[in-house]
Design brief:
about 80 residues, globular, alpha+beta, 3 helices
């Protein structure tokens, strides 16, 4: 199992990050807001889990939205 991690940055507004999570991952506004707050407060949030290929696609999508993201192996 692999994860997509989104990292905090000084550029993107919180509302924009929330919108990206809603649009790309299909999260509710509440869930997307929770993840955005985690990114803001903790510097990062795991926003998805799946196969390595799927997570690489998600990271590429986050980059296309201007967000900083990476793929990490999920903790066991």
């Amino acid at each position: 199992m692999w994860t997509t991690v989104v990292w905090d940055d000084p550029v993107n507004l919180m509302d924009y990050v929330t919108m990206v999570f809603m649009r790309y991952f299909g999260y509710s506004r509440e869930r997307a807001s929770q993840l955005m707050i985690q990114v803001h407060n903790e510097g990062r949030a795991t926003v998805a889990e799946g196969s390595k290929d799927d997570m690489e696609i998600a990271v590429h999508a986050m980059h296309s939205y201007g967000l900083q993201a990476s793929v990490e192996k999920a903790a066991k």
